[in-house]
Design goal:
This protein is mostly helical and 115 residues long. Helices cover 82% and strands 0% of the residues. It has one domain (5-114).
């Protein structure tokens, strides 16, 4: 079964939104007061939840268009690459050569899974 390009694009968008959701969870946790209300009414945490809801909507839309799990889920693994890029810009966390090697292996694995 050939995976439609639109399904792959939905999963790429989902991976980017997933990384944004991770960033929002981290930055929201840094601002949380530790109380239940501090978590429930934290704008960044709420935006993170909305990002993950959007991820699930994109998953469903992608699967409705068709496609193989072995193609689509490895594409979602690019979330780890997006998260590293966001962490670099938001927190100044370095992306070291070993991280780049992992990213290359991840992309190579995605390519091989899609074959």
């Amino acid at each position: 079964m050939k995976t439609p390009t639109i399904s792959i694009l939905f999963f790429i968008a989902a991976s980017l939104l997933g990384a944004v959701g991770q960033f929002l969870y981290k930055s929201g946790a840094e601002r949380a007061t530790g109380t239940l209300a501090g978590y429930l009414f934290n704008p960044r945490l709420l935006l993170g939840v909305m990002a993950y809801i959007a991820v699930m909507v994109l998953f469903v839309a992608a699967f409705r268009k068709g496609g193989s799990l072995t193609v689509l889920y490895p594409v979602y693994a690019t979330t780890f690459i997006w998260a590293a890029v966001i962490a670099y810009f938001a927190y100044g966390q370095p992306i070291r050569p070993i991280h780049l090697a992992g990213m290359v292996l991840l992309v190579g694995g995605m390519y091989l899974m899609g074959k």
